[in-house]
Amino acid sequence: MRIFLTGATGFIGSAIVANLLNDKHQVVGLARSEASVAALRQAGCDVLQGDLRDLDSLRRGAEQADAVIHTAFDHDFSRMADNCEMDRVAIEAMGSALAGSNKRFIVTSGLPPLMGRVSTETDILPAGAHGMPRVSEQVAMALTESGVSVSVIRMPQVHDQNRQGFASYLMDHARKQGVSAYVGDGQNRWPAVHRLDAARLYSLVLDKGVSGERYHAVSEEGVAVREVAEAIGKRLSLPVTSLSEEDSTSHFGWLDRIARMDVPASSVLTRRNLQWQPLQKAGLIEDILESV
């Protein structure tokens, strides 16, 4: 198959590329810089130059492909609303090019922020729930009505030894503050997955995914944030401390909401329906301790 992949040089996308090529697919990667063009060509991909704002390129890439995988997203938290809107428009543009084709369109989204309850693949949240501006999933699922075979992969904290999702932001903050902190008893939880296990799930959804279904790329249902903070403290040789809710905002700043998140998630249905099993031995804590 000819697969159009956005985010092809990204953290997850680069691993997806390797799997797709190994499965003998032809990969067309979206590239916005000469460095990305060179990296994709070196990997063995075809290249379509453009970015998420170049809607003509997105439509052309989708039209000429047998399937589309969308992983690109700008995670600049200082302009999150704008980035979410860019993502929405990009999904709609690619979806319009796929309308009536029944081609597979795999879209990446976040997990439902249910705060304190383990989310499952059957949980469906309306746009704007819990104040979240990202509507990737909702926009994508609406495309099923126009003859697009849409599947959504919901992503937790994705890690390897180079990056550890939100934990990387907490690590940078701990370096600046000279202390690694958590809030209260620190038993709020983050789900996690190794990036290589996440990448394998995209291949399984491409082969066996069902239109209209949501899949959870979750290896660890919930890692306590206290364990994350303790691992950061050990990795950086810094003291670890608990903060009151009153002190949390001033200490963490924009990271406060992230530090407080309690969003465990299950992947029982994903594992059962796709026979997906995480294979990487290192969990989030191990990769924090071995981070480079």
Summarize the SSE layout with pairings.
Elements: E1 2-6, H1 13-22, E2 26-31, H2 34-43, E3 46-49, H3 55-63, E4 67-70, H4 80-98, E5 104-110, H5 136-142, E6 149-155, E7 157-159, H6 166-177, E8 180-183, E9 189-194, H7 195-208, E10 214-216, E11 220-224, H8 225-236, E12 240-243, H9 245-252, H10 256-260, H11 268-274, H12 284-289
Parallel strand pairs: 1-2, 1-4, 2-3, 4-5, 5-6, 6-10, 7-9, 8-12
Antiparallel strand pairs: 9-11
Rg, please?
Answer: 19 Å
| Inertia-based shape | globular
Low-confidence stretches: none
Structural class, from secondary structure content? alpha/beta
Give the spatial strand order of the biggest sheet. 3-2-1-4-5-6-10
Query: Distance between the terminal alpha carbons, to the nearest Å?
Result: 36 Å
Portion of residues in beta strands equals 15-25%
Q: Give the helix proportion (percent range).
A: 40-55%
Question: Mean pLDDT, nearest integer?
Answer: 96
How many DSSP-defined strands? 12
For the sheet with most strands, the description reads: 7 strands, parallel
Assembly of the depicted chains: single chain
Along the chain, the helix and strand elements come as EHEHEHEHEHEEHEEHEEHEHHHH
Structural overview:
This protein is α/β, with parallel strands linked by helices and 292 residues long. 41% of the residues lie in helices and 20% in strands. Strands 3-2-1-4-5-6-10 form a 7-stranded parallel beta sheet, with helices on both faces. It has a 3-stranded mixed beta sheet with strand order 7-9-11. Helix 3 (55-63) runs parallel beside helix 4. The longest helix has 19 residues, at 80-98. The radius of gyration is 19 Å and the shape is globular. The model has no long low-confidence stretch (mean pLDDT 96).
